[in-house]
Inverse folding.
């Protein structure tokens, strides 16, 4: 269809007037024809005066119709215009409001006069879109704010260590200490930036997932071996209890990252002598992997936000242990990128259990 | 040994120059792609350290142009781009090695040494420092007259430290070369520290001469005497 340059208001009015014109013309023509027919039928039986009277009546009718038709059309057109305008008022209100909505006031919504009619439905759908946008925007804002804050912490350390180091003359050993301490913070910054990049790439959909057939037992054993030294340092035991022959379609490296992050957390936040258990089994069409510890567990109030970026259960302690609060966020992404789901099980007693589900392959 | 360093960021370029000269290399610094190409095509270098992001002609273009002239000098590409695809572009364009910024200077040195050594027969069967010696075939470690019982991982770490003796070894180098860890995002630093502590206990605890030293903020080094 060729888009018209005229506004909907004018178009609807023209259509209305056009339709009315046709209807009125047909009506007028019919009534004239009926009157004329009636006259010509009975005309030979009537006296002459009556005939000429009838003729003048017919002419009057013609005049009335001729004048009345445009007048009626004018009235109809005017009425139609008013009607269309009134119908379209909500749309122009929506237009005006929508024009003022920017990133700064995404909380504004379009007015919904009657949620039942078509325009109301349009406004409602539009408002829902706005709400989703608002949510993503505020998540992004929070992420940026948190990220800046996290970046600032090592930067502040580098700066103050450097400034204090330069304040007075020191011996070589002290300078080495100062520089070493600054380099440690640089390491922290680099790790943080690497994690942020991983997440940003994930958000932008730039991470290529290369699925392959992954033997879950093999992968879990590898991760356990890999981190066992850390557990041994804390006299913890890591038990791997996995049924054999469990396979999933996943990007091995990406998925391994998720498991490593969760097991690393379990070791880090469980006390000396704790027991950590990695298990996996098949349940219907999915593989269920569980990583549990018998540590103090995670307070239910944190469950909802535990996978959020930069969220820490215990701010001071995690920071001391070197975490930026991104490990679980990355784990969650890594699992979801492989079509899986991850959740922290509601635990009754002590300890926490992370459960991952992935679609199984034979 | 002459090295051409192509880097437009002057602080980084100066630091690289000073660091490499400290290792007794001859260093020429080039700050633009055009100049780099000119240098590489008109004089002889043993190795080129090339930044990818350069004003004007970028590093990869320079690299392709240099390779088109059939110049086979080893090239290490430095870049802030660490996606796998970028790595592939870099290596496909003829780079011999690829380092992601921010990189550790000891690692750059190690890779330069590796590239300079390349092609030469490396048939060392024993590695030695002071009274510590390892036999790579029998996988046996001896300190003085004690035979040490090392786990396979500890042996590999020790071998790596011995191959880089008197040089700094960063945790990242150990992660990549000993643990074969492909991704930087994996939290390995603690794991490495634990293994180093165990290795140190076995090697140094009963000797007065300490060989493994921790350099704060950088990594480790195996050497006689204080670093």
């Amino acid at each position: 269809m060729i888009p018209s340059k005229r506004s909907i208001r004018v178009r609807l009015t023209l259509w209305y007037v056009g339709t009315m014109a046709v209807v009125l013309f047909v009506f007028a023509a019919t009534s004239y024809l009926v009157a004329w027919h009636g006259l010509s039928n009975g005309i030979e039986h009537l006296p002459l005066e009556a005939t000429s009277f009838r003729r003048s009546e017919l002419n009057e009718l013609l005049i009335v119709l001729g004048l009345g038709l445009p007048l009626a059309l004018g009235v109809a057109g005017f009425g139609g215009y008013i009607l269309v305008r009134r119908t379209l008022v909500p749309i122009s209100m929506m237009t005006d409001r929508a024009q003022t909505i920017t990133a700064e006031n995404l909380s504004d919504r379009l007015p919904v006069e009657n949620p039942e009619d078509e325009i109301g439905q349009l406004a409602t759908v539009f408002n829902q879109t706005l709400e989703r946008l608002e949510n993503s925007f505020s998540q992004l804002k929070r992420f940026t704010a948190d990220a800046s804050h996290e970046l600032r912490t090592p930067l502040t350390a580098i700066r103050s260590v450097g400034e204090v180091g330069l304040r007075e003359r020191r011996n070589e050993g002290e300078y080495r200490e100062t520089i070493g301490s600054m380099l440690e913070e640089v390491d922290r910054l680099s790790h943080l930036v690497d994690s942020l990049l991983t997440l940003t790439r994930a958000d932008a959909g730039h991470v290529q997932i290369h699925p392959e057939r992954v033997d879950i037992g093999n992968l879990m054993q590898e991760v356990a071996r890999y981190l066992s030294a850390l557990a041994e340092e804390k006299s913890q035991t890591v038990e791997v209890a996995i049924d054999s022959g469990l396979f999933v379609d996943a990007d091995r490296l990406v998925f391994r990252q998720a498991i490593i992050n969760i097991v690393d957390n379990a070791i880090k936040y469980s006390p000396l002598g704790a027991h950590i258990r990695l298990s996996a089994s098949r349940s219907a069409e999915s593989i269920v992997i569980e990583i549990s510890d018998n540590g103090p567990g995670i307070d239910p109030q944190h469950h909802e936000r535990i996978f959020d970026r930069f969220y820490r259960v215990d701010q001071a302690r995690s920071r001391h242990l070197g975490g930026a609060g991104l490990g679980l966020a990355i784990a969650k992404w890594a699992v979801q990128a492989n079509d899986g789901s991850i959740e922290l099980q509601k635990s009754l007693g002590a300890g926490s259990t992370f459960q991952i589900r992935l679609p199984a392959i034979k | 040994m002459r090295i051409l360093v192509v880097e437009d960021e002057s602080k980084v370029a100066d630091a690289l120059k000073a660091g490499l000269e400290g290792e007794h290399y001859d260093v020429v610094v080039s700050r633009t792609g055009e100049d780099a190409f000119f240098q590489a095509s008109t004089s002889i270098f043993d190795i080129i350290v090339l930044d990818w992001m350069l004003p004007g002609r970028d590093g990869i273009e320079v690299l392709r142009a240099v390779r088109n002239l059939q110049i086979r000098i080893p090239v290490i590409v430095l870049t802030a781009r660490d996606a796998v695809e970028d790595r592939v572009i870099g290596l496909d364009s003829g780079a011999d090695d690829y380092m992601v910024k921010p990189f550790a200077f000891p690692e750059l040195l190690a890779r330069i040494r590796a590239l300079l050594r390349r092609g030469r027969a490396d048939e060392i069967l024993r590695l030695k420092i002071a009274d510590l010696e390892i036999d790579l075939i029998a996988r046996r470690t001896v300190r003085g007259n004690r035979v040490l019982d090392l786990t396979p991982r500890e042996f590999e770490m020790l071998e790596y430290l011995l191959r880089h003796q008197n040089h700094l070894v960063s945790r990242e180098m150990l992660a990549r070369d000993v643990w074969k860890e492909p991704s930087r995002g994996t939290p390995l630093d603690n794991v490495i520290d634990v293994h180093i502590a165990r290795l140190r206990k076995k090697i140094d605890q009963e000797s007065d001469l300490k060989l493994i030293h921790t350099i704060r903020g950088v990594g480790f080094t195996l050497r006689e005497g204080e670093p």
Remarks:
- Chain A has three domains: 8-100, 120-204, 212-361.
- Chain A has a mean pLDDT of 85.
- The radius of gyration of chain A is 39 Å.
